[in-house]
Amino acid sequence: MAVETVPIMPTTDSSVQKKNRIQVSNTKKPLFFYVNLAKRYIQQHNEVELSALGMAITTVVTIAEILKNNGIATEKKVLTSSVGMKDENRGKMIQKAKIEIVLGKSEEFDTPTASPTAPQAADEAASKDKK
Q1: What range defines the domain where residue 26 resides?
Q2: Quick one: which of 106, 102, 45 has its CA closest to 79?
Q3: Gap between the Cα atoms of 2 and 69, Å rounded
Q4: In a domain, 26, yes or no
Q5: Do residues 23 and 52 make contact, with C-beta atoms less than 8 angstroms apart?
Q6: What is the distance between the alpha carbons of residues 123 and 129, in angstroms, rounded to a whole number?
Q7: Gap between the Cα atoms of 21 and 27, Å rounded
Q8: Collapsed DSSP state (helix, strand, coil) of residue 43
Q9: How many separate helices (H) and strands (E) can be counted in the chain?
Q10: pTM confidence score
Q11: Which H helix or E strand runs over 85?
């Protein structure tokens, strides 16, 4: 189903693409691509804004939780809204859920004892069990 964005309000400075915004898709890239990209953005800009529409919202929440649980980021702001979009196939307006999560650099970000990401922790635990 092809969907195009139809602006409802005039564009403002806040709707212009920000340098620290990541627009997440749950079909284009793997989860940890976004986790690592968010880490890099936090390192460069001290915060990152994760944004998603519709079915990708769960992916954004998962990314934010991984970053928070590993001591990399702290939650600054969560915004939810709905966005009007035009369905190209049917030609009618539909509403899509939207989420924006702003994460800031945590105090533990620069310490070398930050916990590893979930897959690394699982691998380390599995290798300890084998010994």
Answers
A1: 18-130
A2: 102
A3: 36
A4: yes
A5: yes
A6: 10
A7: 18
A8: helix
A9: 3, 5
A10: 0.70
A11: strand 73-87
State the angle between helix axes of 31-45 and 57-69 in degrees (0 to 180), rounded to the nearest 10. 60
For residues 85 and 44, what is the distance between their CA atoms, to the nearest angstrom?
33
Structure tokens at 40: 């890099």
Which two three-digit tokens encode residue 64?
A: 């934010």
Query: pLDDT digit of tens for each residue in the chain (131 aa)?
Result: 344 444 444 444 444 567 899 999 988 899 999 999 999 999 999 999 999 999 999 999 999 999 999 999 999 999 999 999 888 788 889 999 999 999 999 988 887 654 455 455 445 544 554 44
Query: Cβ distance 106 to 74 under 8 Å?
Result: yes
How open is the CA angle 24-53-60, to the nearest 5 degrees?
45
In a domain, 51, yes or no: yes
Q: Tell me the CATH number at 61.
A: 3.30.110.20
Is residue 11 situated within a structural domain? no
Q: Has residue 47 been placed in a domain? A: yes
Residue-level pLDDT at 99: 97
Per the structure, the count of domains in the chain is 1
126/119 Cα distance (integer angstroms): 10
